[in-house]
Amino acid sequence: MDLSTTYLGLKLKNPLMPGASPLVDDISVVRALEDAGASAIVMHSLFEEQITQEQVAEFAHTEGHAESFAEATSYFPAMADYSLGPERYLRQIERIKEATDLPVIGSLNGATPGGWTHYAKYIEQAGADALEINVYYVATDPREPGNEVEARTLDILRDVKASVSIPVAVKLSPFFSSPAHFAMQLDDAGAAGVVLFNRFYQPDIDIEELEATPHLELSRSPELRLRLRWAAILHGSLKGDIAISGGVHTMEDVIKAVMAGASGVQLVSTLLRKGPTQLGYLLAQLRNWMEEHEYTSLEQMRGSMSLRKCPDPSAFERANYLKVLQLWRLDARRKQGWPGPAEPRV
Amino acid sequence: MLDANEAVASVSYRVNEFCAIYPITPSSPMAEFADEWSAAGRRNIWGAVPSVIEMQSEGGAAGALHGALQAGSLCSSFTASQGLLLMIPNMYKIAGELTPCCLHVTARAVATHALSIFGDHSDVMACRQTGFAMLAAGSVQESHDFAAIAQAATLETRVPFLQFFDGFRTSHEVSKIEILDDDTLRALIRDDCVAAHRERALTPDRPMIRGTAQNPDAFFQAREACNRYYDEATARIRAVMERFAELTGREYRPFDYEGDPEAERVVIIMGSGAEAAGETCEWLNKQGEKTGVIKVRLYRPFSAEDFLAALPASVRSIAVLDRTKEPGALGEPMFLDVSTVLREAAQSGGRPELNEVRVIGGRYGLGSKEFNPAMVKAVYDELAKDDPKPRFTVGVNDDVTGMSLEVDESFELDQPEVKEAIFFGLGSDGTVGANKNSIKIIGEETDNFAQGYFVYDSKKAGAMTVSHLRFGPDPIRSTYLIRQAGFVACHRFELLETVDVLGHAAHGATLLLNTPCPPEEVWDRLAKELQETIIKKELKVYAIEASKVARECGMAGRINTIMQTCYFAISGILEKDEAIRHIKNAIDKTYGKRGQSVVDRNFRAVDSALANMVELEIPRETTAKRVLPPIVDPAAPDFVQRVTAMMLAGKGDLLPVSAFPVDGTWPTDTARWEKRNIAEEVPVWESDICIQCNKCAVVCPHAAIRPKVFKPEALEGAPDGFKSVKFRSRELEGFLYALQVAPEDCTGCNVCVEVCPAKDKSNPSRKAINMAPRIPLLEQERANYSFFLDIPDPDRAILKDDVKTTQFMRPLFEYSGACAGCGETPYVKLLTQLFGDRLLIANATGCSSIYGGNLPTTPFTVDACGRGPAWSNSLFEDNAEFGFGMRAGIEQTRVYAEVLLQKFAPVVGDDFVAAVIACQTGDEAAVREQRERVEALRSKLKDSDDAEAKTLLQIADYLVPKSVWIVGGDGWAYDIGFGGLDHVIASGRNVNILVLDTEVYSNTGGQQSKATPLGAVAKFCMAGKAIPKKDLALMASTYGSVYVARVAMGAKDNHTVKAFVEAESFPGPSLIIAYSHCVAHGYNMAMGLDQQKKAVACGYWPLFRYDPRRADAGENPMKLDSAAPKSSLSEFTANETRFHMLKRINPERAEALQQMAAESVRERFALYEKMAAGPSTKGKPAADANS
């Protein structure tokens, strides 16, 4: 059974790889992922902003009190090795390269043009085989037009491309008004692939404390559908590859991702829930399913359900909306009747 | 370019194998350097990495040192002052056993009438009799060199050495020196002597016994048996000095003479003062005078032969200057030594002409009092008199005994080749750090010699720093402050009004100002006196809005590199671009590893500096109408006006001896006269949102936000804009409530806003208090606060012991010098609110004794009746015993009062006597009633002529219960004072102990204590602490007779209040361990209470109260007051630099320690649960009770 794939110019033995997550922080977990059959390792994102904030905060908390009082001209030991730069991240790339035979895909979220290029270079120098630039950006400023966001992202891609020689993919959010057009522009600008999609952590509201609380929920399979739609739309339109990240939990999810056009399938939530062996389990199931369904290679199914090839493309288009909505109204509720509130609250 | 602490440590570390250390100012940096080098694997000259171990006290360090020496190792330690005194018993032993070793001491005053962290020789002089050789250095270079000479000499002579240099003046002076390399050290230290030392080691392979007990038949002779070693020591030391000179070209002798070969007047002096003396002598001789200085290097053994050889034959009069005081002696020690030498030489040494030499002796420089050329000249002038004062002081105006010499304050050495600059800055703005870099740049990148010396504030929050920088073509020997500089910078505009900044500017000097306004407005903002001085002195004035520039560069509050760049640009020391390149290199070197973004922002600041600096055009006439405000309010008491105000103005040196108390007793209630105005922003009360919980007040570290309840009629005369609302209370209907900020005392820490739970429902970003810029609010809020303070406090009888109502009790601890956001002071303040009118505090040395008792002003105050806390600090190590003694003394006086009272039973009535005697302890109400009884007693006996009646009235107040609290930090309670604390809690006496647990030695800069948590990084445990924090609370509870509570105000403030009240009411010993967040934890202190909450929520800091009274009632004495861990330990630790630092350096170890710590937290909580679960089980876990 040929599960091999090519993603970002890397020949991979299969499309399954852990996506950006804390899984890569522990070398023993990385080794377990390799043993389970992972084809590559995607590093968690190096957030320039976080590094900057950490540095500035540490500076304020330590230097702000130093040299103020005769008896205590400092409050922390002077440590030659104490570094608040990206060294730890870079060292982890090196360690993973040493500990495994897997290609490593670095992931970077910059905050400044300089930061993007510097850190990209560092990641390449640390041994990464490819780089994913993670456009995790929430456009909170109502005065900022969408085309500026897109233009900036393209500039970043060009700058990063100019500073490194490894392939560069862009991890997108679903919140572009015309994701397909934007993906095309990225493709034209030299992106070796697009990763669909980033999951923004949605803050919750604490109604007692009147606070917005950061919230992280692991993904579930239904989230895959958004990715499937856009992978299906994009497949065949791009020179670069497509990876799906978010909502892949089962063997069926993996197959759907590939059928929609993905060359790479990134797993996070399911691995966090079930551990590294889940990847091996999915691979085994994938193999079985393909055998049962008489596929000989993954290539056969890649993009088979894309917009261009699938028997009913309208399912991926607007028409799908009306149809589904009508079905829901008719079938789901009218037949069963409305249940009403569970318990009236006093 | 380095300071003497680093210079000495660099030698000592390289020529030793083991350092037993303990932090004490100003020597701590030596130990810190040694520890850092050891942690970094730096090797000594023999290729091994020395081991550096912190002990529980200097006594412990000396014991460890003694032991390691006995085992044949080469060992050292670093200490000062009280620390050195604690080493004395072992020093006798080490010397008595002729054991080579060298202690390095930053000479510091020993506490007498007051503690002083500053330099004099009273500590080393207390070691004269131990048998240690004493070698005194006067400069950074000498300190470095003498560390090497002492080590070589101790090995050759077998006499142990105490090598010392002046605390702060030398230990903290940054200077350009030549560093001894390893080869030189190897050449200097004889291998055969090292081998001989090892041969003498105790080993079972060559067994012997040392430390025997000897009887009258043997002891004396055996004590004399070592004499030969001392007799020969000087010659050997001289030989080492000669060898050193051959190796380095730097010549030293036991006594170095400097001056005219035919000098008639000679000063004998040791330490840094010798530099100032030498410099002055040289200048005087150039003017045609014949003066000289003998610099005493080797003070013990004192070689008469070497001394006489150094003394010019032409000498007619000698002044011996001692930097110590020996009250009651004929003279200070060195004066007596010199007198003896001269007397003997004249009588039997063949030098009869010395009989004609007049010798006088004087004291100078105690507690780092300035010793400058004007004072040196005064001594030479005195020597020139026909009838000089035989004993004198110099540097103070002793208008009581008339001992002091007249000093011509205008006298300065004319040294045009030396450039001088003074910078007035804030600790937090980084001025000192930048100036250290500047002086390094000048010293290392130019041919100049350079010197930097830094003066710090007595306060921690909003602290002022003054940097003194000198450079010139010759070595700088000026071991005193700059008085008139050619360049003066003022990094905080407001300082111009409170400190005589312009007084330090020489005529024609350059003045650089950081201004809060555009340069064109600066002139109009200057008070009339300042304008006058600028015009009169013809100052060139440059201005820059540095704070604004810093903000724009993302460096809010840090103006140091901006001002540094301006300094280089104006002074022209280096070509502009070159200076900027060096400044940037220094920034990169300092911060490069820890943050490129910090480097980049600093670079931006440097690049923006010059474009924003403007030279002001100075008008010919003053234009200001406004004059400088008085230093303190004219309403302040006389003492504050006469004494405190002078000290606040930085003119304390001018106060005469008569201005001071003779016994160290000072009035309290002085902090309120020092209006520091340091906050950028202060809290503003939104009365419509406020729920009147008073949490803001309980947590305020500086008592700068206060609530009050009062009747509406109290509002009469209130300033417009004074806010009050209806008080939400069923018991006090019709009362009003006000929450008021003290705008001039607030430090702007933001803790109150963080803790405020009340939010505007429509706009939750608005709370019941919010920070707002202070300046626009100042006038209104100042008036409001003044009015607020005059509203009478509510009757304490109507208040309860809960958080809300305790805050209506007047804090008798206010506006201390603690750090902004301090985690300790809210507990101390609460203590004074609850029991302040009957409170005695024994305070261990440390942060709490510094913010509690460091002059010029102190924070303890009085209530409306004039009662308030009485406070004292004895030592670091003895605080529990000190407080115990207070209690014993109070009880004995009360016993006597009761005896007398009973004698007057026929007058006052038996029932009255019984009622008085019955009230031994008691709550607020009982104390009030007892006070009324005592008043009744006074009125009954006031006309009595009976002597015993008079005595009874004198001590009658002792019949009112007193609350004795022993307060200190974890360094005291867990380490140095633990033995005493343990003894005191085992005594059963009614004392209360409050441990302000910051989990490090905070006051000396964050060294680990046994309270430091597992996994945390601190000084002296750079690899992260590998064993859990000592559970002092649990240990104390095992006695079963001690009230013990562990509290964290941020987690459960009511629990804290309850524990304080219970502890006080418990008629035996009580111990409260209070979690105190601290700047040494490395996060924003505004979040301190939140971190306390996290510490409790994850089980790291379980709250409990162990009350033996419950056991007496058949209940379990242990009450666990916090729930089982709800969150992971990492949720607490992740926010603090002390924990995440290790993750950056050694992630594997950090992870391993974190896991151990989590396990330890789980185990300990389970143990507490067990203890709290069972029936009455005094002191033992319930599960074990039946086994």
Description:
The complex is a heterodimer of chains A (346) and B (1187). Chain A is an alpha/beta fold and 346 residues long. Chain A has 2 domains: 5-310, Aldolase class I (TIM Barrel), CATH 3.20.20.70; 311-341, no CATH class. Chain A has helices at residues 27-36, 48-63, 87-99, 113-125, 146-163, 179-188, 224-234, 251-260, 269-274, 277-292, 298-301, 319-334; strands at residues 5-7, 10-12, 16-18, 41-42, 46-47, 104-109, 130-134, 168-172, 193-196, 204-206, 211-213, 241-245, 264-267. In chain A, strands 3, 4, 5, 6, 7, 8, 9, 12 and 13 form a 9-stranded parallel sheet that branches. A two-stranded antiparallel ribbon of chain A has the order 1-2. In chain A, helix 8 packs across helix 10 (277-292). Chain A is globular, with a radius of gyration of 23 Å. The termini of chain A are far apart. In chain B, the strands form 7 sheets. A 9-stranded mixed sheet of chain B has the order 1-8-17-18-16-19-20-21-22. An 8-stranded mixed sheet of chain B has the order 29-28-30-31-35-34-36-37, sandwiched between helices. In chain B, strands 3-2-4-5-7-6-12 form a 7-stranded mixed sheet, sandwiched between helices. The model of chain B is unreliable at 1179-1187 (pLDDT under 50). The interface between A and B is large, with 37 and 65 residues.
What is the tally of helical segments of chain A? 12
* Rg of chain B: 32 Å
Global structural class of chain A: alpha/beta
Shape of chain A: globular
Q: Estimate the mean pLDDT confidence of chain A.
A: 89
CATH class of the largest domain in chain B: Alpha Beta
Features:
heterodimer, A: 346 residues, alpha/beta, TIM Barrel, 2 domains, 9-stranded parallel β-sheet, two-stranded antiparallel ribbon, 12 helices, 13 strands, 41% helix, 14% strand, globular, B: 1187 residues, Rossmann fold, Pyruvate-ferredoxin Oxidoreductase, domain 3, 7 domains, 9-stranded mixed β-sheet, 8-stranded mixed β-sheet, 43 helices, 37 strands
